[in-house]
Amino acid sequence: MFNTPIISVVDDDECILISLDSLLRSYGYTVKTYNSAYAFLQSSGPEQTDCLISDIQMPGMCGVKMYEALAARNIHIPTLFITGKSGMPPKFSDKVRQPEGYFAKPFNTNALLACIEAILKRRGQC
């Protein structure tokens, strides 16, 4: 039986959650949305997610800290960061896998979709 890849989106901006949910579902993906890093970490999302899209700047725990918390749990989800801030992407220690990509808001949806498709193809899910 074919399993539809699950894309999880973590962002404190409800408009981003709604628009990415709609976009990704229109391409046939199963989408789960979370309005905070804590909500994602406390759910079953980390174990079920095939690709993660996360904002970097969020109240409470930022996307970078969430990514590091996942790595500390030995959970390695291919991750795309989206951000409203310009500048250099955050740096991670050598012990943490580097994220798959960074997209500045407003981002090119075609580029985001291409990156997701490439991730899923490498994982044999597309």
TrEMBL record:
Domain annotation Response regulatory: ranges: 6-120
PROSITE patterns: RESPONSE_REGULATORY
Modified residues (4-aspartylphosphate): D55
Keyword terms of this UniProt record: Phosphoprotein
A Pfam family per the record: Response_reg
InterPro entries reported in the protein's UniProt record: Bact_response_regulator, CheY-like_superfamily, Sig_transdc_resp-reg_receiver
Name the UniProt record assigns to this protein: Response regulator
Organism in which the protein naturally occurs: Pseudomonas izuensis
Taxonomic placement: Bacteria, Pseudomonadati, Pseudomonadota, Gammaproteobacteria, Pseudomonadales
